[in-house]
Each structure stands twice: as C-alpha cells, then as structure tokens.
Amino acid sequence: MAGKDLEKPSPVVLFRDLREKARQLGLRDQDVSGLPALAEIQCGVKNYFLQAAKRSFKYLLFLACTLAIVWLLDWPVHNERIIRMWFHFRGLPSEDIELERCLLRTPDILSDALRPPLDCAFCRNVTSVHKVENISPEDFEERYAYSGQPVIVTDATRNWSALDAFSFEFFQQVYSQDSLELKNVENNCQFFPYKTTFRNLREVMQMEPRRARMEDSSEPWYIGWSNCDSSAGNVLRQHYQRPYFLPRVSESSKTDWIFMGSPGYGAHMHVSTHTRTHTHTHRAR
C-alpha cells in the first residue's frame, strides 16, 4: 500500500489530465474558468497567501519591537553583543566595529525615494556640453559659473604635476594600511562604491595590482571618495593648484574628491547630494 501511495500523481498532473478530458468533451478553457468550484479554489489560494503574508508581517513586527525594546533597555543582551552578532552575520571582522559609522545603511533606492523634489528647470534647455580652453575667470563667471550650462575646461589641469604623480600606487602610499590617514577617511569621509563590491576605501587599497591595471580581462571598477584628512590633503595639494579659470570671488571647499577607475566606466546619472559646488576633483589614470 505504501508503494502505491508514493506513486500517486501530483495535483499538477491530475489537473492536467482533467483539463485534457474537458477538452475532449468539447469544453473550452473559458467554460472551465467560469465554474463556481474553480472560483472557490482560486479564492482559497489567494486567501492562503494573504493569511501567510499577514502572519509573516506579524512575526516581523513582533521581532522588530522585541529588538527595539532590548536595544533601548540594553537588557538582557548588551547592545555591543548585538552589534557583534550583526557584524558576524554580515561577515565583517569584529575589530571593524570602531570604524563603522552606521549599524544599518539606507539603501540607495530608499534614499532616492525620500529625496525632496528638485527644480530642474535651470537645465531644461541644455542640449550639449561645451568644451573650452584658455578661458579667463571673467568669461567663465559670465558664461558658465551660474548658468547651469555643462562645460569641460580641457586645459584645467595645466601645470599640474598630478597628471604624472597620481596613480593607484600613489594613493596606496598616501592611504597605507593601518595609517591614520586611512582610518580618518573611513571614519569621517564619504565613500562611493558605485557598482563595485568594495565596502570601503581599505578594500580598494587592497586590490590586486593586476586588477588595478586592468590586466588579463580583470573585472572593471570605478569608485570615489572624499578626503577630509589634513595630512593626506597636504600631500595631494603638492600636485595641484587652484583651477585658473575659477572666479576670484568664488569659494573652494577644503575637501578633495578623488574618482578613479577603469577606462570607460564612471558614475551613473544621479543628483549630487553635496552642499558645495566648487570642489577640487582628481582623476587618476
């Protein structure tokens, strides 16, 4: 008897056979779909999944409330213990707890959804990006500084030693492992992994030289970060000067922005969240 029970066809097979018999009797799918019995079955399936979703939501809500109470009371489990368990779950070393600024990160899609509406009227009629060179600060201020017209100053980095000095190896030396410069950047500065799997600047600086130089069809990459470490900033500023075309009355941020990666890759179209508009940006080739 047990063998016969195991050989019973599945409900899918039974329904397929029943449907085939109905077709042989001249019934169409439209005729079968209108049967009250089938409507009851479909309603029962919908109710089953609806009830399952409600139960799951209740369990998650109960779990969230419980964790919130435990976190606020710091009892019966200490918050540090919870954080260490969370780091273990994420596969992160526990010694990185002091370097992590956020326990949970807001997904980019949620940040974009909660962003307040922006007025894009200033760039509505923009159809091209201008390329200029040898432009005076007065002309730049009049034509581009506050017009919303995108422009590329092709000779903006003239007389900069950064074109020869900046490289992946150069930044590895500036932000060497366990250096104060690297720790300060990780704790206080912004890092943009874009479409890579890098979680922080430390992982970038641990990249294999072969991938950094895009050898042997290595996976492409593109990242960016802000430097808010004064020591690293002093090293960077030895290789660049204030762009010659900026208006003399304009303010410049003390924060350096560095973006580097594989040729042909860059940041996706996005709305910048930075509060300052005049920042020094470096690209390492």
TrEMBL record:
Presence of the UniProt keyword Plastid in the record: no
SUPFAM superfamilies tied to this protein: Clavaminate synthase-like
Domain of life according to the entry: Eukaryota
Listed InterPro entries: JMJD6_ArgDemeth/LysHydrox
Name recorded for this polypeptide: Cupin-like domain-containing protein
Keywords: Membrane, Transmembrane, Transmembrane helix
MF annotations from Gene Ontology: 2-oxoglutarate-dependent dioxygenase activity
Transmembrane segments: 59-77
Database matches in Gene3D superfamilies: Cupin
